[in-house]
């Protein structure tokens, strides 16, 4: 999916919501537990219920890989079920030496029909370059994350004394691609950092997790993160997909997704 196509979807739906399919098999509603293909059955119902309210789905591959072959099959069925109108993100956080990254890129961009994959930039440009070489595909680089451990490294002051490590990562990484194939992960629980981050990367899309169960504010994220093309994909996972454990779980998920979308419309039209 191109940037033009993604922006068009956002403008059409007045939403920049990403639904995270972090499908923990132990949290699937009890009535589905005995289903022979429980994870996909759950995901299918969630997708059908939330399709009109979001522009993107993010699949956290860990929840599928942990189930072995059956989990990987559920992942493949899920990504193939999501229509081409929606941006498909593999939240895989890959990144390794060049020839290994080439195989990761092939997995998510050729074998599986994802539009984007999250990557860790710690090993440098040659570990990210293979992902960027795919036309009309996106590389989403970890920029500033919202977990407690992010402070261990990301906000360390460099020896120069004038910037933190995450700022150097953003400034360096931005030269590897363009706003048409490069996004950044910025956690919502530090929404005030977005204002500064936008001075470094004003034009790039940001994938923002942490709204919902992690306590991030959609209002603050939108205030500091929106740009002329929207420039945001705000992810909510558990708050939507596990809104209910009853048989009407999909309807409850749709209700929460619709609430997010309605709030986003206000910010886009402000």
What does this structure look like?
- The protein is of the alpha/beta class and 270 residues long.
- 43% of the residues lie in helices and 16% in strands.
- The protein has 11 helices and 8 strands.
- It has an 8-stranded parallel barrel with strand order 1-2-3-4-5-6-7-8, surrounded by 5 helices.
- It is globular, with a radius of gyration of 18 Å.
- The mean pLDDT is 95.
Q: What descriptors fit this protein?
A:
270 residues, eight-stranded parallel β-barrel, alpha/beta, 43% helix, globular
Q: Could you give the count of β-strands?
A: 8
> Percent of residues in helical segments?
40-55%
**Main β sheet profile:** 8 strands, parallel, barrel
Q: On the 0-100 scale, what is the average pLDDT?
A: 95
Strand order of the largest sheet: 1-2-3-4-5-6-7-8
Order of helices and strands: HEHEHHEHEHEHEHEHEHH
Counting helices, strands and paired strands, the structural category is alpha/beta
Runs in which pLDDT lies below 50 for 5 or more consecutive residues are: none
- Alpha carbon gyration radius: 18 Å
Quaternary structure of the protein: single chain
What global shape is seen? globular
Question: Helical element count?
Answer: 11
Q: What portion of the residues fall into strands of 2 or more residues?
A: 15-25%
> How many angstroms separate the termini?
27 Å
């Amino acid at each position: 999916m191109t940037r033009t196509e993604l922006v068009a979807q956002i403008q059409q739906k007045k939403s920049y919501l990403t639904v995270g399919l972090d499908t923990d098999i132990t949290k699937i509603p009890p009535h589905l537990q005995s289903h022979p293909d429980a994870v996909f059955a759950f995901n299918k119902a969630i997708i059908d219920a939330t399709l009109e309210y979001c522009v993107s789905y993010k699949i956290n591959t860990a929840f599928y890989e942990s189930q072995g072959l059956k989990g990987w099959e559920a992942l493949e069925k899920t990504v193939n079920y999501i229509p081409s109108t929606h941006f498909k993100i593999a939240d895989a956080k890959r990144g390794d030496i060049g020839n290994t990254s080439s195989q990761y890129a092939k997995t998510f961009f050729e074998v599986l029909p994802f539009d984007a994959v999250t990557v860790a930039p710690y090993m440098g440009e040659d570990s990210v370059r293979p992902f960027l070489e795919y036309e009309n595909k996106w590389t989403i680089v970890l920029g500033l994350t919202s977990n407690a451990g992010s402070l261990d490294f990301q906000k360390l002051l460099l020896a120069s004394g004038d910037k933190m490590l995450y700022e150097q990562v953003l400034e360096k990484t931005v030269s590897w691609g363009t706003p048409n194939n490069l996004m950044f992960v910025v956690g919502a629980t530090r929404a005030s950092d977005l204002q500064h981050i936008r001075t470094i990367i004003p034009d790039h899309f940001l994938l923002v997790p942490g709204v919902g169960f992690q306590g991030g504010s959609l209002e603050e994220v939108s205030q500091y993160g929106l740009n002329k093309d929207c420039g945001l994909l705000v992810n909510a996972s558990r708050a939507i997909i596990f809104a209910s454990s009853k048989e009407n779980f999909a309807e409850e998920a749709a209700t929460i997704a619709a609430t997010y979308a309605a709030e986003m419309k206000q910010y886009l039209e402000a």
